[in-house]
Amino acid sequence: MGVVIESEVWENNQPLSIFIFLSCLLSVVCLPHNSSRISTVFDQSLPSSLLRFQRNFLLLFCISSVMEGMWSVFGEYEMAYFGASREQMVSYLIIGCVSAFFVGTCLGMLSDLIGRKKVCLVFCILHLLVAVWKRLFSHPSILLASICLSLASSIFLFGFETWMVVEHDKLGHRLDSLNEMFWLMTFLESASLIGSQVLANWLVNNDIEKNVVSPSTSTALLALISIVFITRGWRESPPSTFKEYRVSLSTHIFFDKRIWLLSWAQCCVQFSVAAFWILWAPTIVADGREVHLGVIYPCLLGARMLGSTMFPWFINGPLPLRTEDCLVYAFIIAGLVLSMVAYDYQEIGILVGLFCLFHACIGLVLPSLARLRTLYVPNELRGGMISLSLAPANAAILLCLIQRGYNGSIANSTIIAFGAIGLLSAAGCMHLLKQSGKQSPHQNFHKQ
Fold it and tell me: What is the pLDDT of residue 448?
C-alpha cells in the first residue's frame, strides 16, 4: 500500500514585511535632532557643491548596488542553467575567494595610491566586461565571471566609502553630515539590492530560456551609465607617492593598537555576513520543507534598512551613546543570534525572525564602523586599512569552503558558530577600544 506524503510549503508572514516597511518609514520620518545643527542631504543650507556631490554620489552608489545585487540574486540560478554542478559552483566560489584574498587585498592600497575615483571606475568596467561577455557568448566563462565579480565586490566594500569621505574633506564637510551619509549608504544599498531582485525577476519573467541574458543587458547598460557619470564628474587631487604612503601606513596602521582592534571587528563582520549569505538558504530548508526564499530575501534586507535608520537615533537621539557602546551591544546581540542558529533550530518562522534580527544589527554596525574609521584612520590610508582588514575574513571563508565543499569535514552549523564567536570577540574589541580612548583620546582627522 502506497503512502502519500503531502508537501508543506512555508510562506512568509505578510504582516512581517508590512511591519518592517512601516518601521523604516517612521524611523526616517521621525529622525532625531539634537540642539546642534544637523547636516543632511536634504539641507538646503549646505554649500551647493557639497549638496550636489552628495546627491550625485548617492545616485551613483544606488546604481552600483543594483549591479552588485544582480549577480547575488541571479548568479546561482544562472550557473545551474548553464549546467554547472554543485561541485563546480563550490569551485567557482573558491576561485573567487582566492582572487579576493590575493588581489582584492592589494586593491585598497592601490586606490590610496592612484585615486579612489579610478578604482570605482574599475568596478564599473569589471561589471561591464562580465555583462558583455555573457551577452556575446551563449556559454560564457563562469570562471572569468567569478574572478571579475569577486574583485568588483572587493572594490565595492571600500571604494565608494573611501571616495565619499575624501571628497567630503576636500569640499569642507561637517562631521555630522558625513555621519548622515554613512547610514544613508547602508540604507540605500539594501533598498537597491531589493530593487535588483525585482528587476531580475521582471527581466526573466518566468522564461529563463528566452530571457537568461536580459539581466546581463541591463547590467551592461547600468555599467555604461556609471562609467559616463564618473568620467564626466569629479576631479581628484594628486595622490601621495609610494614612499610617503609606506611611511604613513607603518606609522598609523601597523603600530596603532586601536586600528588593529577596529580592523578585527571589521574582519569578523565580513566573515559572519559572508557565511550567512552562503548558508542561510541551506539552513532554512534543512528539514526538507519547501520555502519561497525569494520572499524572505527582501525581509532580511528590509531589516538591515531598519537597523541603519537606528544609527542617527543613537548618535543624535535624546540619550546618545558612544559609538563603541552601540557596537558592543549590537555585536553581542548578533553573536547570540548566530549562536542560536548554529544550535540548528529547525522551526522556519523562528529562523526567519532570528535572521531579521541579525541583519538589523548589521545595519547598525556598518555605519558605526564607518564612523569610527573616520575618527581613527587618516583619509589617505582608509582604503588600504579596509582591504587589509578583509584579508583574514577572505582567508577564513576560503578555508571553510574547502573544508565544507571538498572534504566535508566541517558542518554548516560549525561555520555559523565561528561567525558567532567572531562577533562576540568583536564586541570585546570595541570594549577595549573604548577603554583605550579614555586613556589616550583619539586624534580626529576631520572637521566637526
Answer: 45
